[in-house]
Amino acid sequence: MIGSLVARYGPDSPSEPEPLLPPGFAEGRSSAYLRLAGGILIVDENGNVCDTGEVLRECLSEETETRRLDQRTRLSDVIDLTWMETRPVELREVELQLRELAQKVVDGAAVRFSACEGLRYRAALRMHLGEYAKPVATGGVLQPWPGMLEGAGAVHVRIYLEAWASFMSGTEVEFRSFSFPSSSLDSSQETGSGN
Fold first, then answer.
1. How confident is the model at residue 32 (pLDDT cuts 50, 70, 90)?
2. The pTM is what?
3. Which fold has domain 2-183?
């Protein structure tokens, strides 16, 4: 299972399949798109939320037991926003876009950011609202990929809908439980792909 995640999200993974990219984005022209999806999160022993990239680093460096990881996995309803510019993009531009989103959705709420890392990001951040502990969004500037227009910049932002709902309603909306297919778990242990 870990091996398949590394193949999909790791530093040597292939670029996103072209069917997921609008023509302008695939050809390196400025464009943007969003999609609704299910996003995998991990809740650590202290209740902190980690994204896939953070989990992969932990697994690769500490050889985390796959079944223990499976017990901590959650699924969130997310909005994935991706955009490309034909010029370099800086992380502060991502922060400004997220601040603008927060102002439109929950005007007056305190917005704070912290740095985070992801295997596909050159630079990334995590956004929180008020004193709510869980992140409401993560995102940043993507690493360039083979075939990407030289000098272009690309951004990916993931918005966690349960976290926004929890903040806005004042009632905790839990992430859903999620288990990796047992065949993936068994095969990773047999082949040692989690190493």
1. confident
2. 0.75
3. BirA Bifunctional Protein; domain 2 (3.30.930)
